[in-house]
């Protein structure tokens, strides 16, 4: 799974790593990245969507 995370674009990858690996809250991630919590939520949503597509394509490809 981490191999797929590392393939994500930087803005998505950093949000996922800070959340999953460092267990930071959305508020803490927003402060670290200098963005709003809404932006972090959006990036997390899009990152999960991209990871799901990657997983599906690796199963079928």
Give the total of beta strands: 0
**Number of contiguous helices:** 4
Strand content: under 5%
The profile of the biggest β sheet is: none
Identify the CATH homologous superfamily of the domain at 7-48. Answer: Winged helix-like DNA-binding domain superfamily/Winged helix DNA-binding domain
CATH architecture of the domain at 7-48: Orthogonal Bundle
Distance between termini? 16 Å
Describe the structure.
- The protein has 61 residues and is mostly helical.
- It has a domain at 7-48: Arc Repressor Mutant, subunit A, CATH 1.10.10.
- It has four helices and no strands.
- The chain has helices at residues 2-7, 10-20, 26-33, 37-60.
- Helix 2 crosses helix 4 (37-60) and helix 3 (26-33) crosses helix 4.
- The radius of gyration is 12 Å and the shape is elongated.
Write out key terms for the chains shown.
mainly alpha; Arc Repressor Mutant, subunit A
What would a concise description of this structure say?
The chain is 80% helix and 0% strand.
Question: What is the topological layout?
Answer:
Layout: H1 2-7, H2 10-20, H3 26-33, H4 37-60
